[in-house]
Amino acid sequence: MSSEQISDDTIAEIEQELDGDGVWIDPVFARSHDISADDEARIEAAVAATDRADLNVVLVEVSNGDDRFQGSFGSLSAWIHDSRGGDATYVGWERYASPQVTVDAYGDQPGTLYADRVAAHEVGTDVADQVVRIAELVEDGNAQTLWDEIPDDEKYSWTADDGVQASEVLGGAGIVAVLAALVAGVVVLRRRRRARPRGFTLPSTVLHTIRSAEDRRLRQQADAEVLALGEAIGRGEPSGTAHALAAWQQALDHYAAARSILSQEPAPADVVGALVLARRGDDARRRAEQRKPSAWEPPVRCWFNPLHDGPTTRVTWRDDEREVDVPACDACAADVRAGREPDDVLDLIQGDRTVHYYRLDLGAWTRTGYGSLDRDLLGALRTTRATGRRLGR
Predict the structure, then answer these.
(1) Which of 103, 115, 251, 333 could be cross-linked to 328 through a Cys-Cys bond (beta carbons 3.0 to 4.6 Å apart)?
(2) Are residues 172 and 111 in the same domain?
(3) What is the DSSP string of 106-171?
(4) Sign of CA dihedral 45, 51, 52, 57
(5) Are 174 and 141 found together in one domain?
(6) Do 63 and 17 share a structural domain?
């Protein structure tokens, strides 16, 4: 197999093996990850012992240079599933940032949320051991319970008191999202400027408490929306026109990107990005399933807070001697036209104070306004990857 491309012949070989014992391991991947014949036999036995899911294992290093799959196991598993049909769960290797074993489920399959993370936490970095443990977790159905029982300081590289550490998060089609510019940590808050006088500063302990609660809520929302998108993709199919197929690929790319971000230990600004990507991906999916769709373009989000729903209009925002034309939702646009700062700007915490996200150097997130200024958000993220630059610089 080419180091850059997964060929049609290789895909046919994969599907043939999956129809047999449910396991295909690329020989090059096996050598590089010390997977022996005994290891492969253990994996095959674990797959055979799984009754609750139609479990399939595909272990291969998907190259960023692959024209179809662009480094994404999620795209590969979706392609294979589209070809094979039915309901199935795929275990494979995601190569972004911190490469790891991952799980994609399509159709009527048991929940797999956190199965890959629990396996990595319990057995370490050995790939064969992780795959076997994932099979057990899928069969037992207790991955989320076990994940909830793991202390936060073991799950994440930060705690509610220590702040978020700068980290790289790579996502679908080669995304790198790094918050290197934030020294003391970042977290999402909903800013309510009118609820407190200007200049008021919350005590550090209160900010940490709010951050912890908001982080959990936002992460749960992101997990749920990305999971729902994956399930919707697994159930659906494009209508067959050129516009539909193009939109479907966009849905796959956005899903792969969002899922990859969440598979790491994302900082809250990245979680917002995953939510934006998931919502754009779902919009593309719905367009692809229309009988005669027009060409899909990413919806324009509110620049002040990309999580605001609804249509946008252009407004001129003047702030600290600068003037910018930006899209805004109805509520934010009304505030701007009335000469007020919008009431619900997306804020992050830097040190012991809140800061509007667009005042921070978050790379493609801030440069594109989470896609509100440059609608090709995936393209902006890929460019950062290609140039070897960090988004936070």
Answers:
(1) 333
(2) no
(3) ESS----TTHHHHHHHHHTT-HHHHHHHHHHHHHHT-HHHHHHHS-HHHHSS--TTT-PPP-EEEE
(4) positive
(5) no
(6) yes
Residues 379 and 300 placed together within one structural domain of the fold = yes
Residue at token pair 């509610």? 160
Local structure of 282: helix, strand or coil: helix
Same domain as 172, residue 144? no
Q: What is the pLDDT of residues 235-262, one digit of tens each?
A: 888 988 899 999 999 999 999 888 888 8
Count up the domains in the chain and report the number.
2
Q: Which two tokens stand for residue 120?
A: 């990595």
Give the per-residue pLDDT at 91: 96
Prediction pTM value:
0.52
Contact 349, 189 (CB under 8 A): yes
Q: Which residue has the higher pLDDT, 272 or 206?
A: 272
Q: Which two tokens stand for residue 132?
A: 């076997």
Query: How far, in Å, CA of 57 to CA of 37, rounded?
Result: 15
* pLDDT given at position 3: 57
Residues of the domain holding 110: 8-149
Is residue 160 situated within a structural domain?
no
Say whether both 88 and 173 belong to one domain.
no
pLDDT at position 295: 93
Q: Average pLDDT in the 253-282 region?
A: 89
Taking the CA of residue 352 as centre, how many other CA atoms within 13 Å lie in the half-sphere pointing to its CB? 8
Of 89, 114, 149, which closes a domain?
149
Mean model confidence pLDDT for the chain: 80
Of 127-131, 239-243, 294-298, highest mean pLDDT: 127-131
**238 domain residue, yes or no:** yes
What residues pair up with 327 in beta bridges, in sequence order?
Answer: 314
